[in-house]
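Morning run. Coffee first, then this:
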Amino acid sequence: MSVSTSPPRPEGASAIVVAGDEETRVLLRGLLRLHHYRVIGEAEGSTEGTELLRTHPPSLMVVDAALAEGSFPVLIREARLLRPEMRVVLVTPTPVRPGDGTPKGSDGPDATVTRPFRLADFLGALRGPTTHRDH
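And here it is:
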């Protein structure tokens, strides 16, 4: 028998996953569900992700940098306008560097995790502090 030492998710925590690759969506969805997040939607690209934000507002959005359509910087900026209180976690294949186009500050993600990642790093990114934004 295993005992989880992870803190429980916040009451009512719901999530959407936006990733261009089906295997990545399956992995992220599984990790979120395993750690008691309610996954309420998935999208392959920024247009579909933005529509999910409008129709099924989550408390968390996990975005993989590789989208089938659109770009993650545009999606994150749009998410900040639609849901400024929502936590955004970006999953990238390489570390974020200055000048790489990743939104920063109030337009950027709350946390970034580089693939491959350790489970503890991913969970820490999900549960870290969220910067409240006023737009």
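The domain at 14-126 is CATH 3.40.50.2300 (Rossmann fold). Good start to the day.
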